[in-house]
Fold:
Amino acid sequence: MARDDVVGTGRASEARGGARAAGDVLGARVTRRRAVALAGAAAGCAAGACLLGGLGAPWGSRAGAPAASGPARAFAADVPYQVRTSRPEAGAAWYYSDANPYYAATVDGEGRYAPTPSLAPGADDADGEVGAASAASDAGSGAGPTYVTGGDLWYAWGRASEALGEAVALPCTGAAGWLDRAGACGYEVGATPRYGSIMVSRPDGHVAFVEYVGDDGTAYVSESANGTSTTAPTADTVSFHFGPQGDWTPVGSDVSYIHLFADPDLPATGYYDVAEDSWYYRGGYVGYVTEAGIMTGATDASGNLTRRFMPEDDVTRGQVATILYRLGTDDANGGSGTTSDFVDVSDSYCTWAVQWCYLKGVVTGYTDAAGRRTGYFGPDAPITREQFAAMLYRFAAAMGAPTDADESVLDGIDGRAQVSAYAITPMAWCYRHGILTGSVWADGSVHLLPQDNATRAQAAKMMTVLAHDVFGL
Structure:
């Protein structure tokens, strides 16, 4: 018995003219969000502090990128760059030029290298691990703290850019800033090393570049020690190391990796659990919501993307509120507000998304037998198909789209009698526009299944039809 929703593009096309004005507004938002997904979020990179350079597609293989300097890579033939096992040669552009922001620090009146405002420890560097030693040494001279030019950040930035063949899109901060903002700048963060990753160790704040990973899982890194804090680094002042991770510089217990290249084992779908022959991938639904930034897949306990979409999992009420919030605003995340009219939605990933939906009339929360608000929303509860339809219907109304619907379109469809009174018009509207057309079983029969929970795959389909076919985005 198949449970796939079938798209009715003919019905969806009827709504395009009436929804165009709302679509124009949403379209600008989705276009901006798609740009964020591909080129890094402006909110995550402070003005003047993020070198986007030629970011291109950080998830794509860079097999055609210029080879890095160093010996032949016969022992690591799977990596798309030349492994570096020796210090950068004098004059290497990614290291010894103003292309590297850590090299390009300004010189003060005493000839010392002083930090630019975007490099100064403080607000941009929560750990404050960089520049602390030089701050102490400069205390008596009246000079401000300086980042150590020739140190690990200088080298890791240059090495990552060299391997990519373009400026790595990370903000000009310390290690903490790199790790905290990597996702917003378009890179995946994980706990497992892969070639072409930047290793970040906390709390010591050391960074290194993972050249390749051995068959036993050992990460082989190249890294630089503190060269000098008062003069520009040269090949003679850089202390370089190549070898297994942790055998030269102590590595803290909390280690993460900023992945600059796609996982070579990642399927073409972009998710480990999305098959190329699945109906939700073939139909373009997973790809659309991913590119638009309205669904991002699952994250781990630290908030890092896992590249798993969880298509057969139930989608929750809080997740749907977040998805609609992303579509209806310029915020690619979930908002930062903490105020909520619901007692069970506080200090949550979806707090402001739910509140935004409530203020827009998209959600109302649970009611008692008398129809009175209970003050509860149920953010972690699975959403039923009729609840989902109601939220989409109200969202369309809030965005200014026509919401007229002929309830008779549901007549004769199995499950019509099970539709709750509040959801009849929304279900009819969604059915008319092809957002929810029922599940087709093996015998060809169509079933509304209004009380069944909606899956994440079905949510991707419904959101794609709403955004693309109804609003014309």
Notes: The beta strands are 106-107, 113-114, 188-190, 197-202, 206-213, 219-224, 240-244, 254-259, 439-440, 446-447. The chain is about 25% helix and 10% strand. The radius of gyration is 26 Å.
